[in-house]
Amino acid sequence: MKAIQILGDISSPKVNTNYSMPEPTPRNSEVLVRVHAAGVTGDEILWPEPYAAPSRIPGHDISGVISAFGPDYSGPLKHGQEVYAMIAADRGEGQADYVICLADEVTPKPTSISHEEAAALPIPILTAWEGLIDHGALKAGMRVLVTGASGAVGTFAVQFATQLAGAHVIALASSKNHELLRQLGAHEVLDYNASSWKSQVTDVDLVFDTVGGDVLIKSWETVKDDGAIVTVGDPAPSWAFGRGRAVESIDHPKVRHMHFILTPNAERMQQASDMIDAGTVKVLAVETFPFHKAEEAWAFARQRSRNGKVVIKFAEAENSQSSHK
Ligand SMILES: NC(=O)c1ccc[n+]([C@@H]2O[C@H](COP(=O)([O-])OP(=O)(O)OC[C@H]3O[C@@H](n4cnc5c(N)ncnc54)[C@H](OP(=O)(O)O)[C@@H]3O)[C@@H](O)[C@H]2O)c1
């Protein structure tokens, strides 16, 4: 089968296209999916997992069709069904013609969108939902600052914060994206390029940060004394992964602060599918690349202020198109 590999090491990665990889076989209750399109999270090239996998195949977000089941599978999914999946952070291997998924990673894809659009969604949807609801304990009426609000994760954070909890959302993004963010439900929009942005935000109950670095540090000045900061920005802050407390907490001792790695959750993806098909949640713009342009796709995905989530196409579906021939 065709697959993308990340060769080399983390200091000098090389995106490779391989046309003769072995096709995986599902065991136990695993599900084999014929991948139609796979999403690219550019920062995955900085994560240790793709280098640890013997296959060197990256990719956690896929949309495709069920091809086979392991002998013990007894769930509701059917052969030939169109599905999307988020494969757990410690496995991946989604950027290939076929991928093994665990049964609780796969759910029917939204019917109103293409495989390319669906492949862009699992990580952004699950990260936003888990960050706001599980770690951020979001409640109705809270004031929430979303940084990187125009990005893939941020776009869903803005929509979920307003729709799942009725929160008051303050979105931080370049001014070119402000109109879109207002349409998605943001109540206030601020430009991170204006140095004064942090003085315009006060009394925030929850910061959901998808940028990290300087933006994360400044966000401490916006949060209430007993508020919370949840971050997924890469690289992770020095205090992540149980390495102690943030230095900023000396001045803000009651502010809860946490970094997390998302977990797969097919049930939430099903709920998100329903919201997408009902038209209440808008999906991301996608830039689709053909398989042979994988290196270009990864380079594009690593640009921070590009428009749209990068998707690589593996199989031809009806009505599917590549933005990059
Ligand atoms: N821990 C986890 O489980 C997890 C899960 C998913 C993602 N992540 C990480 O979360 C981050 C966001 O992911 P994503 O897919 O949403 O990324 P993305 O689509 O590339 O969005 C990044 C956003 O950051 C904004 N931005 C760029 N430079 C900025 C700056 N200097 N200051 C403030 N904002 C800036 C951009 O806004 P404008 O376009 O408006 O300029 C852009 O919309 C990535 O680092 C990713 O690796 C972590």
Give a description of the structure.
- With about 325 residues, the protein is of the alpha/beta class.
- It has two domains: about 5-120 and about 285-315, Alpha-Beta Complex (Quinone Oxidoreductase, Chain A, domain 1); about 125-260, 3-Layer(aba) Sandwich (Rossmann fold).
- Helices cover about 20% and strands about 25% of the residues.
- Strands 3, 4, 5, 6, 7, 14 and 15 form a seven-stranded mixed beta sheet that branches. A six-stranded parallel beta sheet has the order 10-9-8-11-12-13, with helices on both faces. Strands 1-2 form a two-stranded antiparallel ribbon.
- Helix 3 (about 120-135) crosses helix 4.
- The two termini are about 20 Å apart.
- The mean pLDDT is about 95.
- The site of NADP nicotinamide-adenine-dinucleotide phosphate (NAP) has 24 residues, from helix 3 and helix 4.
List the ligand species.
NADP nicotinamide-adenine-dinucleotide phosphate
Which structural class best describes the helix and strand composition? alpha/beta
Please state the oligomeric state of the protein chains shown.
single chain
State the helical fraction.
10-25%
What would the principal axes of the Cα set say about the shape? Answer: globular
Supply the number of helical segments.
Answer: 8
CATH architecture of the largest domain: Alpha-Beta Complex
- Order of helices and strands, N to C? EEEHEEEEHHEHEHEEHEEHEHE
On the 0 to 100 scale, the average pLDDT is 95
**What count of structural domains?**
2
Low-confidence stretches: none
Task: Count all strands and give the number.
Answer: 15
The radius of gyration over CA amounts to 20 Å
Assigned CATH superfamily of the largest domain: Medium-chain alcohol dehydrogenases, catalytic domain
Our estimate of the beta-strand percent is 25-35%
